[in-house]
Structure formats: C-alpha cells, structure tokens
Amino acid sequence: MNCDPIAGAYRWFEYIGFGRALKRRREAFLNEVGDARRVLVLGDGDGRALAALLRANREATVDYVDLSARMLELARGRAGSERVIYHRADALTIPLAQGKYDLIVTHFFLDCFEESDLRQLTERIGRAAGPRARWLVSEFRKPGILVGLLYLFFRITTGLKTRRLVDHHAFLRRCGFRLARAESVWFGHLS
Fold first, then answer.
1. pTM higher than 0.90, yes or no?
2. In the chain, how many domains are there?
3. Quick one: what percent of the chain has pLDDT higher than 90?
4. Residue 186, domain member (yes or no)
5. Residue 166 belongs to what domain range?
6. CATH code of the domain in which 16 resides
C-alpha cells in the first residue's frame, strides 16, 4: 500500500476519525523499550511515532521502512536523520540482516496484509530479530463496520489489497514472540 496520495492529509484523517486514540496507542509502551539499541520500524507513516520513539530512547538507531516516498519525506522532516536510516522499500522484500534488531515496531501496519503475506512478513522479521527482541504492536482488533470502512477508504486511496482483518497473534507466536503486555481501548477496537 502506497500512501503517497494521502500523505499530506493523513494525520488529519486520523484525527477526524479517532481523535488522539491512535497516537496514544503508538506511544503507550515507549517507556518500556528505552533500552533498545537496534530498531526496525515498518510502515509507520509520517514520522510522528518515530519522533516520539527517538525522544523516549536517546541511544537507539533505527531502520525506518515505508513504501511511500512522501511519508518518508514527512518522517525525515519530523524525526531527522541523525539516528535513522530511511528505506523506501516493500517490507515483504527488503533485505534484512539475520538477528540484527532488538526492537521491531509496527503500528497499524500488520492489518494491511492478507494472511499469506502476513505469514511471510512475520517469518522474515522473526529471522531479523535478535534473541531477546521485543515487538511493539498497535493494531485494530475487531472486524466490523469501522474496519470495513477503513479498508474501503484505503483501497480507494492507496490501492490496499486486503479486505479483512487478520489476527496477527498466531503469526507472532510462531516466530517465538510471546505477549508480554497488552491494553485494549476504544471499546476493544484498538490494542
């Protein structure tokens, strides 16, 4: 999914639809990952969450992957390039070094994949994760009208292919990750 067509207005769409709920999800556990040194951030968009991560962790270096050139430009403008390497690439095909990362960050990203692609993605990222790596995830949790409307909007504006929410938990477990902490908000729609 390439968000170039909506990149400039993305945060306003988000605020209109969810207020600050998605921002709060992205930042909910940052105080628990302040010791991460090598971070992989996938599909995080315009850099607001990246800037918050860098403020919360003064030592981390980040590989930031997004398919949208415009989103990368916005992220670079918000977070700078001092500790971040920006990659315009598809998360399914970008080369990733084995065992490199101690933190993986995916905010409202895993819900953009069909089941087969999500399996492939989580396996690739699992191999790129170090032995004690953590995976920080924010996602939509409940299928229904709200998620259906979001999928329709993103299908029209960005070419998103998936049409349904796939539960990512089983895929993460298969890669050796276990749920350490979770919160559910917005009537269970966000975690």
1. yes
2. 1
3. 68
4. no
5. 4-174
6. 3.40.50.150
